[in-house]
Structure formats: C-alpha cells, structure tokens
# Entry
Amino acid sequence: MKQLFLLSICSAYAIPALAYIDPGTGSLIVQSIIGAIAAIGVTLKIYWHKVKVFFMKKEPTTSEETNKTKAMPD
# Structure
C-alpha cells in the first residue's frame, strides 16, 4: 500500500518532457502504421487461404472414381 501511495505521489509531480515531433517523425510513424496494416493483411490472406484449402471437401478425381467402381462387385 505504501508503494502505491509513493507511486501516485511521484506520478503527480512528473515534469513535462518538452518533446517535439517534427513532420519527418510524423511521416515515419504514419508509414510504419500503414506498413504494419499491409503486413497483417497479407499474412491473414495467406493463412486464410491455407485454412480454406484444408477444410474444403476434396472431390474425387476420375481415376479414384474408376477404382471405386472396379472394386465394387455387382
């Protein structure tokens, strides 16, 4: 409890950073956000395709169909 009280006292008296973000830094931040969104989109698209292919019902090919009909007696 004492630590929480001390932390709240210290945070109440925080000094300002006096930081400046120039246009170049702002542009870098915007480019980073756009790049991250694009990377996430491509990653989701790749994995979505793999999941979709995994769960798709496989259609038997013609050679599999002929093998099944030959194996089944009349």
Notes: The CA atoms of residues 67 and 73 lie 12 Å apart. The mean pLDDT is 81.
